[in-house]
Amino acid sequence: MNNLLNFKSFFKFLSRNKTFTSINVFGLSVSLMFVILILVYVNQGLSTDRFQKNADTIYAIANENNIGSAWRIAERLAKDYPEFEKMCPLVNYSEYGIFIGDKKYKADLLMVDTTFFTMFTFPLVQGDPNTVLEAKNHAVISESFAKRIFSDRDPMGQYIKVNDSVSVMVNGIMKDIKNSTIPYSDIVFKIDNVHFFNESLDSEHGYNAMGVQAFFQTVPGSNIQAKQEEIAEYLKTFFWVYERNIFQKVIFVPLTEIYFSKLQATTYMNQNSWTFVVIFMFIGILILIFAVINYINLTVAQTGSRAKEMATRRLLGSSRSELFFRLIIESTIVCTVSFFIGLLLAFAVLPFANDLLQVTIDLKGFFNLSNSLIVIGVILLVGLISGLLPAIIISNSKPIDIVRGGFRTKTKMVFSKIFITFQNVITIMLLAASLTMILQINHMIKAPLGYNTTNMLYVPTYQFESREKVNTFVNETRQLASVNRVAYSQGVPFNRGNNWTLVYEERNISFQVLRADTTFFNMLGLEIIHKNNVDGNQMYFSEQAMRELNLPIDATEVKLWENETTFIAGVVRDFQLLNISYGIKPILVVIEKEEDIHPWNVLIETQGDPFIARDQVKEVYERISQLEFTGQYTEQQVEESYTDQQRMAKLVIIFAIIAIVISLLGLLAMSTYFIQQRSREVAVRKVFGSSNSQVLIRLISTFMSYVGIAFIIATPVAWYVMNKWIADYPYRISLYPWIFITAGLFCLIVAFITVFYQSYQAANSNPVNNVKTE
């Protein structure tokens, strides 16, 4: 046992082989940093809302497309189905302008029912969950908001002016909402006020179908999911989207499944893609495998020197099992040290990781008792895997083979060839994936959208207190030298405007509707391909809209609603809503007089330097509204619409770089070792007439061949995977051969540079010295 626990010789070995030790510790530390971040990230995702006391009985209502519904539906179902104990509709607004006294702030708003604090487990610092939202003007603020706005003052009883019609009184303070699908909110107040923000969301309104998140708490022991078909049939009797078969299914999604649900919430909720998490985990594990391979590779390569020590221990009485466990413990020690270095690295890169993943990773909060046991298990597993192969090889060796030198001959290249080739396969695949993703994303960002996107600055106006303030902003903006034109509108192509869904010739047709003035139409450069003479408000139909209606291009009227004729002012060429991935949809552009439009936004065409223009518009906006400017250029909006794809590409690029660095260091160490081992062969070849260049080519080509084999293996696999990925995009690139050739050449060049110096020194060495050394 004393022999087993005496590691003095192991630490001496590490100190004598600083290069190999550094490479092993670096590779394991970086890879374990990723493993730590992945563990915490996945754990947070899987534990979302599981702290809720009623988590097992809370559901959100959804259809086959989205999670969302209407307030009046929630009320009706809660009344008519005894399986429901409580219901709570939710509506949220982010960064909404509010007043406290004469000061203006931005706050995240959440409107809920009085049941909110009894259904959900969001602890109150002050206030009673049963009565805190009893009155229509009662509100609860978050702890962070209270500290940020009220500082040392007592916020209880203070009034907050949310808009011209709504003032609420602080009646409670809650702990910040964390680790929930329900987003963080500064102010929570009653949904009875929602008609002051959007009349269509009110419980009395019959048209809005998806603007509210409706949560239900079921009676314990009931099975509401078994009644989904029955409820869908029931909704057909009075809810228009089911009457018209726009939606056909009712789905009750458990609260704990919303975060990773494939169904997207129609209003802002915290959700994530399970596919993204799986890819993140998979690539992270690959990086860990890289580091483990380096450890195994370098340890096996050095078995000659370690085997002599182990042979001596065998002769002094140690058993094979003792040697085996000793080597496993040694690898576990290295892994443990690497883990703590990796943990420090994880804390160092945490801000970058939070930004990339769009979450707040709580590293400190992760290390409770159960999670610490998981971490210990990971360390032991990595230590076992890393040390297993070297332990088997060394502990099973015969002392006589070690003395004769045959042991080194048998082991020196077998495993290394496989491992180096595998590392290059993965590296080439990651590089090819990175190139493909970058090209595809740029291809979509630069895709023609069918309208003018250059210098188009979108500025939302819904937060202005009145139309007069909007007019003041527009009039002052028009005076700026950097502004060419300004238009009023309800929506722009990027945010798709409003939606009209109707039954036409017994078919459901969904139109996106943009209401705007003539300036808007001209600024975007929408192309009219046919025009009719129509008085009053003019309604232009896109080509796709005419196709959906089965109308000829020269049609002058259509009955969209029973007993009501709609005149067609003309037909505009199809243009793209949102981004190129959204596909061509039927669109109606309604041209109205400027004074008749209730604008959701203004569209500003700037000239000259776009950054200077934006700053000038921003100054006018913030002076008049007293709010932070949120305007964006259309090109910026389009680029940001691919955030998920860009996030994935960044992740793959980061992992590709790490993979290259780890494999490069491993190759550097291995090439140094094997060239040293082949010094006698080099000397003999030079004695028998081989030139320096011939020896150099022979040494380098050995390692280049591994990259060549890896390229042959990696290319078809990478092509298949990336072909499946781009197939999801209607507007996509071709998988050009140069993408894979570039990835292969890059690995080849890196490998060449890595092994060239050692090979050059060996090729130009004096053979006499090498023979003497051997």
Give the proportion of residues in helices. 40-55%
The percentage of residues in β strands lies in: 15-25%
Structural class: alpha+beta
Q: What is the strand tally?
A: 24
Averaging pLDDT over every residue, what do you get? 85
Distance from first to last alpha carbon? 37 Å
Number of domains: 4
Would you identify the regions where 5 or more consecutive residues have pLDDT less than 50? none
> Which word captures the global form?
globular
Rg over CA atoms: 34 Å
Major beta sheet summary = 10 strands, mixed
Count of alpha and pi helical runs: 27
Describe, in short, the structure shown:
The protein contains 27 helices and 24 strands. The radius of gyration is 34 Å and the shape is globular.
Question: What would you say this structure looks like, in words?
Answer:
The protein is of the alpha+beta class and 774 residues long. Strands 1, 3, 4, 5, 6, 7, 8, 9, 10 and 11 form a ten-stranded mixed β-sheet that branches. Strands 13, 14, 15, 16, 17, 18, 21, 22, 23 and 24 form a ten-stranded mixed β-sheet that branches. The chain has a two-stranded parallel ribbon with strand order 2-12. Helices cover 50% and strands 17% of the residues. The protein folds into four domains: 1-48 and 271-412, no CATH class; 55-265, no CATH class; 424-447 and 642-774, no CATH class; 456-640, no CATH class.
